[in-house]
């Protein structure tokens, strides 16, 4: 046997061997002979061992079918009636002549080995057509040779048929990809290591891509994913987004402020995962990317000069609002905030119990929350978007995880009362009469209409069009009072409105951006006591107000600009929230 090969038993050969052993026993032969005699003489049964009254074996007929060919050989004992005089049932009876089963056993083994070599019939499952295409459904109409020829003609225009990062825009168009795929294409062909890509290396890469990836989602993941991976982690998006920052005309004013590239990239990455990574796994799969609108937004980067029009992921104004809100809370400007810092958001609107739940690890990744009781800027992005827009699926899941204290997937009446107690105390401190919990509970159950009485599930809240009212009732005092002052009919009208209206987050970001611009125009200093030059607000507004006449801005302290993109350890990024 060659080294390294492991012996594996063949069940059928072992069963056949055991059958032949059983068949070679003298008692088995005597029993078979007795059965044959019973078949030949049905009128006069012969008892086994001389007992005429004992019934015969019930499997006499099948035994005949199992009878080997060797019993008809010349050396076999005769099955004539005279043989019935022998004591058939005695295992110790004397036998004349040599045993006759030895040669048959080896012959039976040879038969089994021959049967093993016989081909098995085709399985019935082979006739079922393929219905699962993790890398996209193959397309018969793709002319690979024509695409490769077009790519080669494009490379022929470059010196030495090598393309730099600046040339990859034309290569992306030759491949039939959107313009801003040029960064992933360049990195996918190994250009980040050598500074350029040869035509032969790129053609080999793209030909393999066309053969294995059959839609845009699979191609995009294949280009960005780390070697050996099958899904995208957060750091996989950095080369792609860095190219967007470097080359998009809507971000030209940011080119010189390199210390803020990482802040913008971090914000966009968190917004991508907030919207696309519906599994909360920390890794984006082809299926999740395929179901999202991210690739459509990437294609729009080519046509939309104003980056702020792409509000779902890339808006710089949205990043500006998020970062300014974080800056106000991060008093020591180390890009980490604790529970006391986060509680100051929106003038302590969010309850203390909810702040504690956020820092419990229910909706945060990384080890700093558990070790030091702090969350990073990336975690704050999730918090702010979820706080200002509680109608999206991710925000509903975010707050449901926080309110589900025992993690059983159901909001019990105990958990609702736990959060409502603090709301009542805060209302009392404001000289506002709080609604008794029983009455509030009846209102919320009428609002949500859970499928199971007394149990509110995540599915119930996703079906409810007023989930934001439900959440604000239990942990946001400012928005709870705002809902109380408005009629419920108006809330339903807002929730049922159709058309290209702004989402709650887009409306909030637009309003806050206007406020920041107005404060800068009035020259109001920040309330945190820092000098004006430390504020990112006044350092950006001049460029935003006059994009055609831009000047340097974002002059921040060295300590703030030196902070790395990811403060938390990558070892905890892939862990789903508890």
TrEMBL record:
GO terms for molecular function: calcium ion binding; protein phosphatase regulator activity. One of its GO terms (cellular component) is protein phosphatase type 2A complex. Residues 67-121 are annotated as: Disordered. It comes from the Eukaryota. Keywords: Calcium, Metal-binding. Residues 391-426 form the EF-hand domain. InterPro entries: EF-hand-dom_pair (IPR011992), EF-hand_13 (IPR041534), EF_Hand_1_Ca_BS (IPR018247), EF_hand_dom (IPR002048), P2R3A_B_D_EF-hand (IPR048855). The keyword Electron transport does not apply. PANTHER family: PHOSPHATASE 2A REGULATORY SUBUNIT-RELATED (PTHR14095), SERINE_THREONINE-PROTEIN PHOSPHATASE 2A REGULATORY SUBUNIT B'' SUBUNIT BETA (PTHR14095:SF1). The B regulatory subunit might modulate substrate selectivity and catalytic activity, and might also direct the localization of the catalytic enzyme to a particular subcellular compartment. This is EF-hand domain-containing protein. The lineage of its organism: Eukaryota, Metazoa, Chordata, Craniata, Vertebrata.
């Amino acid at each position: 046997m060659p080294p390294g090969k492991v012996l594996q038993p063949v069940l059928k050969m072992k069963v056949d061997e055991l059958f032949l052993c059983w068949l070679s026993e003298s008692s088995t032969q005597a029993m078979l002979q007795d059965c044959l005699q019973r078949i030949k003489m049905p009128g006069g049964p012969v008892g086994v061992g001389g007992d005429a009254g004992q019934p015969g074996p019930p499997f006499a007929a099948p035994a005949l079918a199992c009878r080997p060919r060797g019993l008809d050989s010349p050396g076999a004992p005769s099955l004539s009636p005279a043989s019935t005089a022998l004591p058939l049932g005695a295992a110790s009876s004397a036998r004349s002549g040599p045993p006759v089963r030895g040669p048959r056993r080896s012959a039976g083994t040879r038969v089994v080995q021959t049967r093993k070599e016989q081909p098995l019939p085709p399985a019935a499952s082979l006739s079922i057509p393929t219905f699962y295409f993790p890398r996209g459904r193959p397309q018969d109409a793709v002319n690979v040779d024509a695409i490769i020829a077009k790519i080669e003609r494009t490379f022929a225009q470059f010196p030495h048929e090598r393309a730099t990062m600046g040339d990859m825009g034309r290569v992306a168009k030759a491949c039939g990809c959107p313009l801003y795929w040029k960064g992933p294409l360049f990195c996918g062909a190994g250009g980040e290591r050598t500074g350029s890509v040869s035509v032969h290396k790129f053609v080999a890469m793209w030909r393999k891509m066309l053969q294995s990836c059959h839609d845009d989602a699979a191609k995009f993941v294949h280009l960005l994913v780390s070697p050996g991976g099958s899904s995208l982690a957060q750091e996989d998006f950095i080369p792609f987004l860095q190219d967007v920052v470097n080359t998009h005309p809507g971000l030209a004013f940011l080119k010189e402020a390199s210390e803020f590239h990482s802040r913008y990239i971090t914000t966009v990455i968190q917004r991508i995962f907030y919207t696309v990574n519906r599994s909360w796994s920390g890794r984006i799969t082809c299926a999740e990317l395929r179901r999202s609108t991210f690739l459509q937004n990437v294609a729009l980067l080519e046509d939309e000069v104003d980056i702020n029009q792409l509000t779902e992921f890339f808006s710089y104004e949205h990043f500006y609002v998020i970062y300014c809100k974080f800056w106000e809370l991060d008093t020591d400007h180390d890009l980490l905030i604790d529970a006391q810092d986060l509680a100051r958001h929106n003038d302590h609107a969010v309850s203390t119990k909810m702040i504690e739940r956020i820092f419990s690890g229910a909706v945060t990744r990384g080890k700093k929350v558990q070790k030091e009781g702090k969350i990073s800027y990336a975690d704050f992005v999730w918090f702010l978007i979820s706080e200002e827009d509680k109608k999206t699926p991710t925000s509903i899941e975010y707050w449901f995880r926080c309110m589900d204290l025992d993690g059983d997937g159901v909001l019990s009446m105990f958990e609702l009362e736990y959060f409502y107690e603090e709301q009542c105390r805060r209302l009392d401190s404001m000289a506002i009469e709080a609604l008794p919990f029983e009455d509030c509970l009846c209102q919320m159950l009428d609002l949500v209409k859970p499928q199971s009485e007394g149990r509110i599930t995540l599915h119930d809240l996703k079906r409810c069009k007023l989930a934001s009212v439900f959440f604000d009732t239990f942990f946001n005092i400012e928005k709870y009072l705002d809902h109380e002052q408005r009629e419920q009919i108006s809330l339903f009208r807002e929730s049922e409105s159709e058309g290209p209206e702004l989402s709650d987050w887009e409306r909030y970001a637009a309003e806050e951006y206007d406020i920041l611009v107005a404060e800068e125009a009035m020259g109001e200093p920040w309330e945190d006591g820092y000098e004006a030059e430390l504020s990112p607000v006044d350092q950006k507004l001049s460029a935003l107000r006059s994009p055609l006449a831009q000047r340097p801005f974002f002059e921040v302290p060295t300590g703030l600009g030196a902070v790395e993109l990811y403060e938390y350890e990558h070892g905890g990024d892939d862990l789903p929230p508890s």
